[in-house]
């Protein structure tokens, strides 16, 4: 193994990592073990050579006293990580990782990224031992050698941490080993880094641990030769504090938590236990969803009858343009407005041309650029609107953001609306427009972005481009698409309860208008059912309070089977259908992800 004795952390709080490895190795030897850690013994064997005999005996004695409680805690964290994976989380951060081996032993999915944060001294010992064992992680493992009392935020971000995806934060006692000031700073920082839906588990202690013999022994061990040791106490109201930071918390007593494991580790104080916290959406996102509910948008598609009435009203509004109330006025605007808003036209240079498709339909195509600089790239933007409405303010907003933040020329085709505009020719025409732009500018300079049903059209168009042999666009972005217009997923009923925007019944009717004479399984209207190989790089965005989230998850699950297609899936907890274009922090994070990908 080489000389690892000189790297063994024998002083300070880092020595607890070896003690926990001792506990995990002992647990692994048991016939009734709660988990299996085949690497733990390698750490124990390597560490022993670095300790004086008396100090090693002291460490073993402390491990004996903490064994039952700590080994149960390891299993509880394993279960917490498993629950996070079941919830779709694929980003895990281990705070004070120590000699943790979950990246190796839990069978984490390949696309999962585990960030291990701990002191450089810990990794100076850990990495050579792992190298000697030839152990291979089942997921992506990234070492972040830093002190949580320093600028660990930058170190984590530099390691590839994504602020736009939910995270499972794992703490097995590190927060309790820091002074209260530092533990609060750590949690405040991780809160800033946490997308909605992120998970955090924190232990709550309500006893004077300094009076417990085991903790006195541990403090004595840490103090022997230690450079600096902070308090082992968290003595403030953790639940209230986390709630104030935007976390929803749930407390479970230690006894209730460990009872199913059958180990003798009960505690007489019911206030001792664990706090499971979930990052809530921002207040802006909650207000935005509430606004959508108050406007009654969902009532327009809550049933087949409602959707039919909406379409009839749109057609009548487009013909007469004499609205009777504010709702009809908005429908008139969405049915007839094809020009950019005044502020958009004033801010950007906009040109317009009219093209004719193979069916003889005229399309208005806007091209918008910055007035003060040449664009670096071109984006074809396909708007939403349930197949039956024109481009919305949110679409114009995102187009403007693309111009300013991604130095893009944005080409905005306004396709014929259903029932006249159907999947029989709309995706082909989008493909025609994109192919010409690729010929003129090069595939590396052209990307496709679609929102809602526009994303459905966009994915179908990408498949058509591939079938024609056109070079792949630089990037294809799908924002809340309908991927299978049949909408038959069993999860739809539950999602309908939380979605303030869409409803399956009405959407199926609108989808039938766009289908035209095609089968509902035709890739031109249900692109998930088509050939999704060799599409290049895709970004897919979905919120968990969108009925279409179940299809996004299904597509993301299929993605590893695609050849020549790399899908990057971004799911936002409790976000609604149009969250990416919303004026919320969550929407801003998603948009910044798009800008970076375009650049």
Automatic annotation (TrEMBL):
The keyword Transferase applies. It comes from the Bacteria. One of its GO terms (biological process) is methylation. Its EC number is 2.1.1.-. Residues 379-580 form the Alpha/beta hydrolase fold-3 domain. Gene3D superfamilies: alpha/beta hydrolase, Vaccinia Virus protein VP39. It holds the Pfam family LCM. Keywords: Methyltransferase, S-adenosyl-L-methionine, Transferase. InterPro entries: AB_hydrolase_3, AB_hydrolase_fold, Ppm1/Ppm2/Tcmp, SAM-dependent_MTases_sf, SAM_mthyl_Trfase_ML2640-like. GO terms for molecular function: hydrolase activity; methyltransferase activity. NCBIfam families: mthyl_TIGR00027. Exhibits S-adenosyl-L-methionine-dependent methyltransferase activity. Belongs to the UPF0677 family. This is SAM-dependent methyltransferase. It comes from Nocardia terpenica.
